[in-house]
Specification:
The complex is a heterodimer of chains A (about 250) and B (about 290). Chain A is α/β, with parallel strands linked by helices. Chain A has two domains: about 160 residues, Rossmann fold (3-Layer(aba) Sandwich); about 80 residues, no CATH class. Chain A has a six-stranded mixed sheet with strand order 6-7-8-3-9-10, with helices on both faces. A four-stranded antiparallel sheet of chain A has the order 2-1-4-5, with helices on one face. Chain A is globular and about 65 Å long. Helices cover about 75% and strands about 0% of the residues of chain B. In chain B, helix 2 packs parallel to helix 7, helix 2 crosses helix 11 and helix 2 runs antiparallel to helix 12. Classes of the chains: A alpha/beta (about 250), B mainly alpha (about 290). The interface between A and B is medium-sized, with 38 and 32 residues.
Chain lengths: ~250, ~290
């Protein structure tokens, strides 16, 4: 299968089971939703996929290759990108500088040319800088290029993080509550971008709280509660599932 | 001219210490809280001096050997250090500095023990030091403008983000360590060939604190920070000479004041201030055009 697939993934922290036999697919070209109440283990799943946490059991397969045991930076170089639930930008650095690091994976200049500042390394920096400005234009953020990222409004900071994740043209994009704290207009705007991204062939996993938002973007939704998938299907199917209603509203 | 020549030894000290400060700066920039540079400089100094004194190796080849030794020991150290963070790295590297110090004292046949090494040919003068410092500043600036410098900055500011963007923390920090080891080893060697003699405590705890102070006082982000920090702290005891025995008190008070009021160091605080002024001016001019 093209895309990402989790097969019986488990994660235990001491006695707590944060992920219990999770099996789900994130196919290329679509936005797959993962919802669940607070503390259901959604962020743990992102951390497991990206290699920030080691699996206790199970496998994670990407384009037919087992990536369960790879280090986080290796997984990233395979084409994985993520955003963080609490925005993590380099606050004092300018917006452009925040984006430049997003291109790290694409760069190929040798270590020696970097240490000595040879023309090859400098030309690469100039090229990357131009790409960052293109990206800013695409997201209509050019006017903020030289501002310190920490001084931007919340919505704009989210955008910068999104651009940084998209900089290296990922094949898998993991979005950890990307519209938290945004109003409906801002969220809808970002939602359009997510659909565009998925349409270009990227496998997108959208982790959300906001059920309405997920319903609009996803054909396939998985619901997580206490580390287990309690329902999977189309948004309509899932929403009428008694187990899901119980998890969200109490029985 | 006479007057300036009188300050030449002080200027040489400034140049040597600028080199040490830059070696310290580059590891801090990559987010490694290492104070190993004193030990690495000691290794570079003793190896370079020993090779020339005992085996008659040409001083410049000895300097090269000292530099390489700095790199090798730095890489060896970076391996266990990759498992540690923050203050634990500082403690582990402090232990390394003490080990080097003890070995220097006990390996008497090689290092001269507590007496140190004497009669080292003085082949390094102000010009050689100027060239070495110039080259080091160039390197540090060049690295800052490339992929490697961006990786250093990313790892220092947020490891999780760096890793999620494909930056290997271990590799990046090892490279920073190796560069720092090269600079530390080189300037250790230069000091050996500049001062006729070496003694083990030269590279002890007070040396380590001095180097760290240069970077803290000047600033940790821009390359000019450590240079300014060194200039201030090397010149200070001379400027405060009339205060006689209270000189070190001024030194200490200045450091405390800077840490309390300019935690980012003199140069970085100034640069941030100028950048804010610039952005404010630009914002005002765009607002003016729109209205």
């Amino acid at each position: 299968m093209k895309g990402l697939s989790l097969q019986g993934v488990c994660k235990r922290f001491g006695g707590v089971t944060a992920a219990d036999e999770i099996t789900l697919d994130v196919p290329a070209g679509r936005v797959t939703g993962l919802i669940g109440p607070n503390g259901a283990g959604k962020t743990t799943i992102v951390n497991l996929i990206t290699g920030m946490l080691a699996l206790s059991a199970g496998r994670i397969v990407f384009d037919g290759r087992d990536i369960s045991a790879l280090g986080a930076d290796r997984i990233s170089r395979l084409g994985f990108a993520r955003t963080f639930q609490n925005i993590r930008l380099f606050k004092e650095a300018s917006v452009v500088d925040n984006l430049l690091i997003g291109f790290h994976k694409l760069q190929q200049s040798s270590l020696v040319s970097n240490i000595l500042g040879l023309p090859a390394a400098r030309a690469e920096t100039a090229r990357i800088r131009a790409m960052a400005h293109d990206l800013l234009q695409r997201f209509d953020m050019s006017r903020f290029a030289d501002f310190p990222a920490g001084g931007l409004s919340y919505g704009h900071q989210r955008r910068v993080e999104m651009m940084r994740a998209l900089a290296a043209s990922p094949t898998v994009l993991l979005l950890d509550e990307p519209v938290a704290g945004m109003n409906d207009v801002e969220a809808a705007e970002l939602g359009r971008i997510f659909l565009e991204v998925a349409a270009s062939g990227i496998a997108v996993l959208l982790i959300e709280h906001n059920i309405r938002f997920v319903t609009r973007l996803c054909e396939q939704v998985h619901v997580l509660d206490y580390g287990r998938v309690i329902a999977s299907g189309t948004p309509r199917q899932v929403m009428s599932d008694p187990a899901v209603i119980a998890a969200y509203l109490g029985s | 001219m006479e007057f300036l020549l009188g300050y030449r030894p002080l200027f040489d000290v400034f140049l040597l210490h600028t080199g040490y400060a830059l070696g310290q700066y580059i590891v801090l920039r990559a987010g490694v809280f290492s104070v190993a540079n004193a030990g690495l400089s000691s290794i570079g100094a003793y190896l370079a001096a020993g090779l020339t004194l005992k085996l008659g190796v040409h001083p410049y080849l000895s300097l090269l050997a000292g530099t390489l030794a700095g790199v090798v020991f730095a890489l060896l150290l970076s391996w266990p250090l990759a498992r540690l963070r923050g203050v634990y790295q500082a403690i582990a590297t402090l232990a390394f500095v003490q080990v080097v110090l003890s070995v220097n004292v006990f390996a008497e046949p090689l290092t001269g023990g507590a007496m140190g090494l004497n009669g080292i040919p003085r082949v390094v003068g102000t010009w050689t030091l100027l060239i070495a410092v110039g080259a080091t500043i160039y390197l540090m600036t060049a690295i800052g403008a490339t992929r490697l410098g961006r990786a250093f900055d990313a790892v220092r500011q947020d490891e999780a983000v760096a890793v999620s963007l494909g930056v290997s923390v271990t590799r990046t920090q090892s490279v920073a360590f190796a560069i720092s080891g090269a600079v530390a080893g080189l300037f250790g060697g230069l000091e050996a060939f500049h001062g006729y003699a070496l003694e083990p405590n030269q590279f002890g705890f007070s040396f380590l604190v001095a180097i760290l102070s240069y970077v803290v006082l000047g600033g940790r982000r821009s390359v000019i920070g450590p240079v300014v920090g060194t200039a201030v702290l090397v010149a200070l005891p001379e400027i405060a000479r009339p205060l006689a025995e209270y000189r070190m008190l001024v030194y200490g008070a200045l450091l405390v004041a800077v840490i309390a009021y300019l935690p980012r160091g003199i140069v970085d605080t100034l640069l941030d201030y100028l950048r804010r002024q610039h952005m404010a001016a630009r914002a005002a001019s765009t607002a003016g055009r729109q209205s």
